[in-house]
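Protocol step 4 of 6.
Sequence for DegV family protein (Coprococcus catus) entered exactly as in the expression construct, tag removed. Do not edit the line below.
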Amino acid sequence: MYQIITDGSWDMGSERATRFGVDVVPYYVTMDGEHYLKEIEELDVRDFYQFMVDNPKIFPKTSLPTVQDYYDVFEKYAKQGIDIICFTLSAKFSGSYNSARNAGNMIQENYPGIRVTIMDTTLATLMQGLMIQEIVRFQRSGADYDALIKRADEIKDTCRIFFTVENMDYLVHGGRVGKLAGISANILNLRPMILMTQGELFPSGLARGRVQSRKKAMEKLFAHIEENGNDPDRYIYMVGYGYNIKEGEDLRKDVIEHMKKKWPGFEPTVEIGQIGATIGVHTGPHPIGFGLCEKSC
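Step 5 output, structure tokens:
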């Protein structure tokens, strides 16, 4: 028997965590730089985004789960003789992976018979969550510990995130975009197209305005499918939004409609979710995008 655990960057919420039997180790969020709250447990994501909308000149911050946070969760299962597989946010974004590894080493010292594997998903937010959902499906199909780790390693390399933001302010503040480039883009009403793959963010072009940026992101998603076998049924899809749920719902409808036109007879599975604070502090209140992940079985 083994338990799947993830850090809070998975952004799937408490209801899905219960439904999929996943234990979550949350990140911390601060609005004032002094008082930290556990995301979901003590700070609702909707309240987080509302604060950002109401206070556009204040930039919230996050702090990763501590080694003790991970240890406390791991130990619950170790005491019961249950092995552990833990998935974390990309190690290139956060020290969460190292915290989990340190906690895992402590568990194995104190509970020598327990297997602990910490996997860097190289992903973030809802794509991390979508991958974990697929891994749970694989687990429930009867996969043993080693088979699941092998399949998870394969799946994570197929995941891609294509997204854009409302403006460059938060990317500039977080040091991910130069100040001059950010100011110029804002003045020209340009929206950056961003691709996340293999744990890193890559520029993927610019678009003028919100509508065009969404359209270009969709084009890049479809191009990726075509370049990798042109089999849309190979993947499961996810739309992610920030403050504006209607924008997310509209984008989901657009994606489904365009996929059906492009691949007649195909009925896409496109889930939708709210991007959490762990990534929202870097994107601002209006990220929008989608991603894909290979089905587990």
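Step 6, annotate. Residues 210-227 form the longest helix (18 residues).
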